[in-house]
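Researcher: Here's a chain I'd like modeled. Treat it as a single chain, no partners, no ligands.
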Amino acid sequence: MSRYGQYCPITRSLEILGDRWTLLIVRDLLVGATHFNELARGLPGMSRAILSKRLDLLERHELVRRTDDGYQPTDACRDLGPIIFGLAEWGARWAFGEPRQDELDPTVLMWWIRGGIDPAAFGERRVVLHVRLPEARRTRFWFVVDRDDVSLCFTDPGHDIDVLLETSLSTLYQVWEGRIDLLAAVRDGLVSLTGRREVLMRLPDALLFSPVAPYVRRARLTSPAT
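Model: Modeled as a single isolated chain. C-alpha cells:
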C-alpha cells in the first residue's frame, strides 16, 4: 500500500483504492461478481496473485468480507457506487471514443454478456443464442439460457440454435457499452440477427447491457461528438 504522507481523507482513500486494478475489482463486486474465478475472468490482464493481494487489502479495510458464497461487498464498498459510476459518467463524456485493439477481448465480453442476460424475458423455454465474431481470435460462442441460469459455452452444446448473432467484435463491444444502439446496428447492417421470430422479438428485453451503458447513452445525447 502506497502512503502519501499527507493527513487528508482523499490521500487516505487513495492509499486503499489507488493501486492499479483495485477500483475495477470494486466495480465488478458492485455489479454482482462474488467468486474469485468470476473476478479473474472479468479482469484477465491482472494476475491471480495480484487479485488475491488486492482482495486481501480490501478485506483488511472492511470493504469486502469473505463468506461461504465468496466475496461480498460491505456497506463501505457499496458507498463507493456513486464514485465508481461517477467515473463512468465522466469517462463516457470526456474519455470514451472508439475501442482500441488492446481493449477487445472476446472472452471477457462474453462473460459480461452472460451476466447481462435476463432469462425471465424468454419465459419458461430454453433459448440458445449463438454468437459469431468472424474477425476475433475466438470466433464462436453459445449462450444456453434456461429459466434460472445462463451458461456460456465455448464449444457447440448440441442444442438447436434459436438466434444467430453475427458482427465484428468492435461493434458488439460498442453495442454492449451503449455507444451503438442494437436495433440501429441491425438496421445499418453492422449486426446480423437471424432465428426464431418469437425469440428475436424478446431479445431486446433479455439483453440488460452494461451497467455503464446508460451513462454512455446519455453522453451521446449531450455530446454528439463523443
